[in-house]
Design goal:
Layout (H helix, E strand, L loop, with lengths): L6 E10 L4 H15 L5 E9 L2 E9 H11 L1 H10 E10 L1 H11 L5 E4 L7
Parallel strand pairs: 4-5
Antiparallel strand pairs: 1-3, 1-4, 2-3
Helix pairs in contact: 1-3, 2-4
Length: 120
Amino acid sequence: MSLTTNLVTIHPYFKLQPDKKSEAEAIVKDFIARTETESACLFYEFTVNGDVVFCREGYEGAAGVLAHLENVGEPLGKMLQISELIRLEFHGPAAEIDSLRGPLGHLNPDFYVLEAAAKR
């Protein structure tokens, strides 16, 4: 698979409150419906491990990330009412990550800068 050189991925982990799985499923459907309209989204999927919901997502550059976060503000607010954000990471090239530090620093994420990659 060949991906864009400015790929930025987001890695949020949500720990659901007890008995909130069905509510989370409805919120995930809303996340997906909104994200399907985004041209900068390269992939977007949810995986679950017990009461932890993980979203694996990738975007063309920092601008794509910021547009996505604006687009999903409403379902994100709902998800945070029924879960705890236990980890948040952003991964990508230095220039893209640096563009996110200011607007997203208040979230206290871990920022990972790409150091090496295999190319196809």
